[in-house]
Fold this sequence. Notes:
The chain has 286 residues and is mainly β. Helix content is 7%, strand content 30%. A four-stranded mixed sheet has the order 1-5-6-7. A four-stranded antiparallel sheet has the order 2-3-4-13, with no helix packed on it. It has a three-stranded antiparallel sheet with strand order 10-11-12, covered by helices on one side. A hairpin with a 2-residue loop joins strand 17 (270-276) and strand 18 (279-285). The longest helix has 10 residues, at 120-129. The protein is globular, with a radius of gyration of 19 Å. The protein starts with a strand and ends with a strand.
Amino acid sequence: MRKYFLILTASAVGALCASAQTSEEKLENGHQYVDLGLPSGLMWSDRAIGAVGPVDKGDYFAWGETEPKNEFTTANYKFGPLGSYEEIYKYNREDGKTVLDPEDDAACVQWGGRWRMPTKDECLELEKECTWTLTEHLGVSTYKVEGPNGNYIYLHLCGYFYDKLRDYQRTGYYLSSSVFTGTSNFINITHAYIIKVNPRFFSGHSSNRRYCGSLVRPVFNPVSEVDDITDGGHRTAPTAKEGRVYCSGDFRIYDLAGRDVTKANGSLKGVYIVRSNGFAGKIAVR
């Protein structure tokens, strides 16, 4: 259940360590992560890309760009414009892509290993399953986001770039890997889902313009460790045909970065991981 507290007591948190709470240092490809005990099993990094600590600003990225920059405009956005900002040429209504490909995912490119950017649904899981406490850490106003198991990360009010850095220490913007679809599932190609935090609220279902600069907080799912399909004998192993995975019973489909792409079944192409009772493994979809 989602819980929300508002606490502004610098002295109370002064004794906290400089990093997110863990029982021991846990690394994925050289970068520390925190197991929050989320139902999905998702692991969250303890800081943003480019940050030297949990509440450092780090690097700012436009959505779908894999290199940080200091100027963010419609004119220098990677996927447009082709005459106007509304003519973005990838992740649009024609190609139907709603989640970043690995080559356009800043976490995949910058950190490697199993790291990637969180999807909209994973941002919502963080919102709903964790206790969010507005506090102060190392002199920075920040949310302490505590998981069901008591471990936590910080999401601070890092602002965002437009023509300049805006709203620093007033609002925080953290990119997801998902194109904004809104309540009607209509793809709004000019926006992407973000985690947005400020002193009044926090949301894993907000959006911002794709060309604006925001922080990236990487995640990974250990499901990507799976290599070979093993049939338990009581369930049929998955098959694939014309962009669709077929499997008896309940199952989930993940890309090789660990993103849940089950909803895209029917328009898949490439190698995916299928998980269900009785087996877990890779399958090629053409």
